[in-house]
Amino acid sequence: MAKQRSLTDNHLRVEKSLEASKGRWTEELPSILWPYRTTPRTTTDESPFSLCFESEAMILVEIGVHSTRVVYFNEANNEEGLRNLLDLVEELRDKEALIVAAYQQRVSRYYNKRVNPRPLKEGGLILRNATVADPTGTRGKLAPNWEGPCKVKKVLQPGTFKLETRGAGRFLELGMSSI
After folding, report:
1. For residue 1, what pLDDT is reported?
2. Residue bearing the bigger pLDDT, 6 or 100
3. How far apart are CA 18 and CA 36, in angstroms?
4. What average pLDDT does this structure show over 49-53?
5. Please, which residues have CB within 8 angstroms of residue 33's CB and are 6 or more apart in sequence?
6. Known Gene3D superfamilies for this protein (predicted)?
7. Is the peptide bond before 149 cis (omega within 30 degrees of 0)?
8. Cα–Cα distance measured from residue 86 to residue 160, given in angstroms and rounded to the nearest whole number
9. pLDDT score of 114 more than 80
C-alpha cells in the first residue's frame, strides 16, 4: 500500500510540474524525470540509472557548483574504473538479487504478522486452489481461481490432507445441498 501511495504521489508531483510549464512540457520532462531516475529505491538500494548504466549519476547542481567529484575528475581513471566495473557486473547483479530477496522476506514477515493460522481438522470445509489442481494450465484465464468447497477427509501431516470433493450427495450428511 505504501509503495502504491508513493507512486501516486510521484505521479502527482510530475503532473503538477508539467502543468506549470504548460506548452513546454516536452522540454521540461527530462529535468522532471531526472530526480526520479537517480533516486535509490527501497527494494535494491540502487537508483534505476545505476542499475541500467552500472555507474552513479551526477546531479546537475554538482556540475554547476563544482563539487569535489567535478574538481578531481580524471577521465583516464574514470575509463579504467568503468572497465573494472564491467568485470564485476555479475557479482553486482548477484548482490542485488540478495538484497531483493531480503526485502521480499521483510515484506512477507510484515504481511504474515497479521495472519492468524488455523489448523485444519478432519471434517472441515476448505476451498482448493484451482491452479494447484490443474498444473498444466489448460483451464484458461477466465476460469475460477478456487474450487470447492472440499471436505478434509484425513490429515496426513500438517499441511497435507486427503480431500473429498462434493458431488453425488457426499455433503448431504453435513446438511449442505449439492450446489
Report:
1. 42
2. 100
3. 14
4. 74
5. 14
6. Ribonuclease H-like superfamily/Ribonuclease H
7. yes
8. 48
9. yes
